[in-house]
Amino acid sequence: MESHSRAHQAVSALRHVLGPQWEFSLTAPANRTFEIRHRDRGTPYIPPRSVPSWDQLLSTLTTAFAARGVTRDDCLPLRWGRETELTISAVQALDPVLKDGRVNPYRKGFLPQPVVRFTGDRDEHGDLLDGFLTAFVNVSQVQPIAGLDDYAEALDDWLFVLSQLGFHARHIEVHGRVEVWQRRQVAGVTLMFNHLYLTVGDLVLLWDRENPDRMALDLGTGLERLAWARTRRDWNKLVFGPFVDAAPVSVLDAIRTATLLLGSGIMPSARGAGGVARRVIANIPPGLIRLGSSAIVRAFHQHWAASANLQVPWPLICSAMEEEVASRSVPRCPGAPRPHRAA
Question: What are the residues whose beta carbons fall under 8 Å from the beta carbon of 78, sequence distance 6 or more?
């Protein structure tokens, strides 16, 4: 199947599955960009009064996906060590199918996957913009599919899941391009979905370039961004809670990310995944750690534990973080080894 023909067929499948309550339109240039909007769009959005905990939000997502036949699977390990040192997206669970020619992926279904990325949008001072974090929970549906109808039905399922969180379809817009991107062994078509003006996530149709009948889908958003779209609360207060004024946002982001890394058993080292942990902890000032980090680490540990099975309890994370920060503040003779710390 010619690739751009597949893109057009994907749009046709979406039109068929979503039905007449959704309007499709093509825009310039050359009718390559399309939009999908609900026919009753334009009504005001009133955020729900209740603000669920992260556990409650994940529980609602799990139940809603299961109601559509999509069961929750275990997370991928944060230490990846293949094409990337760390897991940066739940779509990496599809590597065996899309890159290795195997039948079974590493994981499939609903994956609330903690990830670490350094690609978030930043302002002119280098600070992360609202909506972006170095570490977040990549809420995903990843699975091999038999055809384009499965891809379209995944969007319909996602609209149902969003409705269980308090969103309404009339506030959701979908847009994409009727063209195919290609990266190494994989080709794909990407849909982006917005809640009003806020981009929430995407739905990607993927296939093996050498075997186009080997297809999969990746629906992805961030748990934190999803909560932001739902509540419309201040971003930093939503993510950092009562600690929002305790330190600069860049430091809070570093502690939050370090808690995930250390909690996953990735201790600071000179290279590899441990080098990433060392790079993150380097953003934490010694003075803050000397005042104590147990309360904030415990809170972030609880956040990550809602989606991942952390290997290291929060008291040991505090100790490892404090030792790493202290090792930077103690002068060393040239060539002297760094202080030993438990793996």
Answer: 86, 87, 114, 115, 116, 260, 261, 264, 266, 273, 308
